[in-house]
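ok trying again, last paste got cut off:
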Amino acid sequence: SAKLASTNFLAGRGCKECLQTGYSGRIGLHELLELNKEIHDLILQHAPAEKIKAAAIRSGFKDIIENGVDKIFSGLTTFDEVLRVTKNV
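nice, full thing came through this time. structure:
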């Protein structure tokens, strides 16, 4: 996309303060499923996880990886760091 092509992404550079990691401090990656009536009813019906996730996405749910991508575009972290902490998700 044009936004992706025109974005300058950060890369961590090492220094004494960050122990050569390129990162200082911590920022959380989160996902939060807010229950609405549709999701509540699906859970009570023991619906498959895929069906519950589809309903959640329709209502605006973002998973942990999407939250990480948002933080990459905001300049708060890097692709490498999001990939490192979400590779087993």
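cool. DSSP finds five helices and no strands in the chain. The chain has a mean pLDDT of 86.
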